[in-house]
Predict the structure.
Amino acid sequence: TMLARSGRGSVRANVASVITRPQTIPTPVLYPIDAGGQRLIEWVSKEGGFVDDRLKCVQQTPQSLCRGVLAVHSISEEELREGAPLIAVPEKCYLTSDHARQLLRSLKGGASSNTVHVPSMAWVSASAGIGLPLTTGLSGPSSSQQEPSTAFQVALLLAHERSVKGPASFWWPYIDSLPARPPNPWLMPDAELEAALAAVGPAAQEQWPKEVERARHAIHQQAEAAVRQYGKALGVDEQGVVWAAAQVLSRAFGSDTELGMAPLIDMCNHRAGADTPWGSEDVDGQPVSCITSCHNGQPSELLAGDELFISYMARCSPLEAFLNFGFVPPELMSKVK
């Protein structure tokens, strides 16, 4: 499949030729493989996507010390300059706010649409990135008479697909790969939260516990309201919706009104200056979202054992980053007050 980068010039490499590339590289660097992540790679490929076969999902990367996407063989800068993505995910694999609205509309007897709008992959200039603004999760209705916020609409869909459809869900390989306990600090035990705050510094230790508690209260309040309104019809409970909301707030990209969860792409960890997902099309005109290895816009060689990063915290404050991810990235530490 030939891809053409939207707004980034032409992709000169034929992705199909990359997929069929013979394995000529020596024994790979070995790390514990993440089974759920590998099943996700298989699903993305089955649905028409592409993942370079030198990339693996591993349980712990040497750089981030957590689950991520690792090069088990070297990928040279010269290869990267040819323009083919390392990962291309069909946008039909995304779990979006449009899917959620269609589901909720169907419960009210509304007509559903076969057209699903995937949030623009220019998200980095239009939003906080994968980490949503604090107001996205904490603002919105507190009454069961109002519609849930966009984040909680997506959470209802995710909770329904997980608890009711299970392995029969189209998105099951993605759902099954999600962490059992999301990283949000408002889900952390006290001792773990204290350690996470200490890692940020004295200002966070003094001022942020009340913000974490406020977030915890707001999340449970909105989950309770959403379950009162839709829980019986969707077969979901408050615990399941809180879990799903945590996944949405720590992984989705977009804006207050338009959100999407990006399978596999969201398994890449953050590093400032790394690639941001870019939209493209396959030979049939179907949209895909792509990432490669770069730093500050220039191709960046991956040695065996190096992690593939993306950048997703543009416009994110230290507190927003902490409430969404449970940590503050180095480039934001100087802004902690």
Observations:
- Residues 94-261 form one domain.
